Task: structure prediction
Amino acid sequence: MSGSSAASVRRVSEQQQIDGPAATERTVPIGVVMVGMSLVVWWPAFTIGAWGDLFFDQLLTLWAASTAALVFVLVERKPVGAKLVRALLLLTPSLWIVLSYLFNENETNIAVLLLAVGGILVIVAGLPLTMWVLVRIVWPDFASITRRSTRWLILGVVGGIAIVSFVLGLTQSQWLYCEDFAISGNSEPAGCTPEPPDLYE
Result:
């Protein structure tokens, strides 16, 4: 092997040694983001399927996270136009809480229905956006060091888990018993299946 060829091989090997750890460092946080977002969305999606509604603690958790993210967006040093849309979307959970005060169960059925649908939309739209903003806060270079295809992969995985969780909640009577919900500290959803007596024997 000639001297130039050996030097070229050494350079390639050294570059691989440098790129290897860097690639790993980039890949691991992406996996953490994907897992973290999936853990956040599965339970609200399941409750919508099983109970047809959202629990108040889920909405208030989203409100707390989105409000903190909203404050960050407002104070970050970026042009107003670049952060206005994000700020308005992050304000959605607070708007829902205000509407909850203005309308209650004594109002017309249409108002109650719109409020319930609004709560679901707050979760569906607010959770991914809030998680995205929080990721950008913790990891500012996320968008610049990840390819568009990778971001779409994260969105696809998280969206797929949300859809599957919703279907699992919708079909809970086919694979869960009422007692499973009671033991876990949850109320029994309508249409749940009682546990057969012979399982106690």
Summary: The chain has one domain: 29-191. DSSP finds eight helices and no strands in the chain. Residues 29-191 form one domain. Residues 11-25 have pLDDT under 50 and may be disordered.
